[in-house]
Write a structure and sequence with these properties.
The complex is a heterodimer of chains A (285) and B (271).
Chain A lengths: L3 E11 L6 E12 L4 E5 L6 H9 L6 E6 L2 E2 L7 E4 L11 H11 L4 H14 L15 H13 L5 E5 L7 H18 L3 E5 L2 H7 L2 E5 L6 E6 L8 H6 L1 H14 L2 H12 L10 H9 L1
Chain B lengths: L12 H30 L9 H14 L1 H33 L1 H17 L5 H8 L3 H25 L3 H9 L4 H39 L4 H10 L3 H32 L9
The chains are: A alpha/beta (285), B mainly alpha (271).
The complex binds adenosine-5'-triphosphate and magnesium ion.
């Protein structure tokens, strides 16, 4: 049985000012198995964050169903830990206090929670920083803390919304490698939102590609890469490059472009200069 | 650091402290010098404005007769009680306002309306309700401080990033514990500002209320001295009030700020 099961998720917002209804998520269904790493990829504004917020319990869905461990999601819960792009660490808590926070909220006594917290700090390479405050850490270290803080609760699924988008490119590579190592070691179930194709392929077992709004699942791509992974070998792997190219094509220009290309490959359309209108019309026939 | 002076950048900790203290005192020394010169040059009557030595003399008299301590003690007691009441009511009320958009929408206009009226304007009603004396003065201190503190606390809660609240909720924080675990520490930078502003209002409210409703205290003493044209006593007590305020700020608020907001890297702009 899958850990996370999303069926026909549909989400509408009512714009507070104009009163118009905005469809953030059209019709999305997919599932994440226990110990699986699944990314969701799609053009900006297609509703990736919305899907994650519904799974986290921060937002209510309009229709459809979201179940984690067989139970429908109604509110935030430590079973669904979230790693935020903005880190969202508690500035008034030390590094140790941040990691132990969830355990403390659930009434785990200090004597039991400290060793657990230390163990997860060690897992993310933050041992020795227990007494520091978050603002004394670099951006990369802050997000390691964000990951440790979630994993310490041993959630059913870890939700990550573009967690590495606000660190520099070099640090991002390092964090991605460390995340695959952690995944390798602990096998958490991960649902990861990104718009970085390389990142999605490098990290994931499967990638869910959303179309632009109103979003539907365009394709679910299985990543044919062995674990453990590191950037050096993955970048030289032809399977990596194939998958990246395929996903990039899926994303480029959304649906119309993808179909145009499919037609071009099947030799039905002259590839020289097809106006988009004709390509669309062709796609509908 | 609140007090970085050009001279404070080199040397050891002790000499840095010393020079910081000197820089702090310098404007006051200059003010005193200007005072001496002006009174000397204009030969203004003492009942209009006293010379600094007269004030020092008055201060010595008040000290040795023990009057100073009676009045300062009476005032401090009222301030402490009023401030404790304001902290115990204003901060929780502000957190409540900040954590619900509807409650805030309902109370915010009332709160802003009340800030202008806070303190002094309530003295007539306070004396009608509570009589002339202790209770009316403490009520005024509380009232003067309450609105500024509640309003700033509300702002502080409202500026806590949504993601922080979500992070806490998704780690299983029960709703009731959100207040102490997230809203209170998260709003602390603004709460400190509210305490600063509110304490200022509180002291002013105290002086005004004591003029009308008390038979001891610094405000009462100033008022009494005016009847006897004792400008030296008036100025002496005005200086005492200013010094008490500075001590509150530097001995209570600044360390509180250093140990929390600054330590956590949350320091906002403060006056
Ligand atoms: N609270 C809200 N109220 C109204 N509309 C919203 C709200 N949140 C999101 N939307 C709308 O829903 C759509 C999907 O937003 P969402 O943030 O989920 O996209 P996204 O795929 O995460 O985009 P990005 O890649 O830029 O992060 C957008 O058009 C957005 O304007
Ligand atoms: Mg997003």
């Amino acid at each position: 049985m899958s850990t996370l099961e999303i069926k026909n998720l549909h989400k509408e917002y009512v714009d507070a000012y104009t009163g118009e209804t905005v469809t953030a998520v059209g019709d999305v269904s997919f599932s994440v198995d226990r110990g699986e790493f699944v990314s969701i990829l799609g053009p900006s504004g297609c509703g990736k964050t919305t899907v994650l917020n519904v799974v986290a319990g921060f937002d209510k869905l309009t229709s459809g169903s979201v179940e984690v461990g067989g139970k429908p999601v109604t509110a935030p819960s430590p079973e669904r830990g979230v790693v935020f792009q903005s880190f969202a660490l508690f500035p008034w808590k030390t590094v140790l206090g941040n990691v132990a926070f969830g355990l403390r909220m659930r009434g785990v006594p200090r004597r039991e929670r400290e060793p657990v917290a230390r163990q997860y700090l060690e897992l993310v390479g933050l041992e020795g920083f227990e007494r520091k405050f978050p603002h004394e850490l670099s951006g990369g270290m802050q997000q390691r803390l964000g990951v440790a803080r979630v994993l310490a609760n041993e959630p059913e699924v870890m939700l990550m919304d573009e967690p590495f988008a606000s660190v520099d490119a070099q640090t991002r590579r390092k964090l991605q490698e460390d995340l695959t190592d952690i995944f390798q070691a602990k096998r958490p179930t991960v649902f990861f939102v990104t718009h970085d194709v390389d990142e999605a392929v490098f990290l994931s077992d499967r990638v869910v590609v959303l179309s632009s709004r109103p979003s539907t699942v365009a394709e679910i791509v299985t990543v044919p890469l062995e674990r453990p992974r590191n950037w050096r070998s993955v970048l030289e792997n032809p399977d990596f490059r194939h998958t990246v190219t395929h996903l990039t094509d899926l994303l480029a220009g959304g649906r119309a472009h993808g179909e145009e290309q499919a037609e071009r490959l099947s030799g039905r359309v002259d590839s020289s200069s097809e106006p988009p209108v004709r390509a669309d019309a062709g796609g509908e026939s | 650091m609140a007090l970085t002076s050009p001279a404070g950048r080199r040397g050891g900790k002790l000499s840095r402290r010393l020079s910081a203290a000197l820089w702090f005192l310098l404007p006051f020394v200059l003010l005193a010098a200007v005072w001496v010169v002006i009174v000397e040059v204009t030969e203004v009557e003492m009942r209009i404005f006293p010379q600094i030595t007269d004030v020092a003399g008055a201060f010595g008299e008040l000290w040795s007769s023990g009057e100073l301590f009676t009045h300062v003690g009476a005032s401090l007691r009222r301030v402490v009680l009023g401030v404790i009441a304001a902290i115990l009511t204003g901060i929780p009320f502000g957190i409540l306002l900040g954590s619900s958009r509807w409650v805030a929408a309902f109370f915010a206009p009332l709160l802003r309306f009340s800030v202008a009226l806070a303190g002094i304007a309530w003295i007539p009603l306070a004396t009608l309700w509570l009589g002339y004396g202790e209770r009316a003065v403490i009520f005024i201190v509380w009232n003067a401080m309450f609105f500024a503190l509640a309003y700033n606390t509300m702002l502080g809660v409202q500026r806590i990033p949504t993601q922080l609240l979500r992070a806490a909720r998704s780690m299983g924080t029960p709703r009731a514990r959100m207040f102490t675990e997230v809203l209170l520490p998260g709003a602390l930078p603004n709460i400190v500002t509210g305490l600063r502003v509110g304490l200022g209002y509180g002291w002013r409210g105290l002086v005004a209320a004591e003029i009308i409703a008390a038979s001891a205290g610094v405000g009462y003493s100033i008022f009494l001295a005016q009847k006897f044209f004792r400008t030296d006593v008036i100025i002496a007590f005005m200086i005492v009030i200013g010094v008490l305020w500075l001590i509150t700020d530097r001995a209570v608020l600044a360390p509180l700020e250093r140990r929390t907001v600054e330590r956590w890297g949350m320091k906002a702009v403060t006056a």
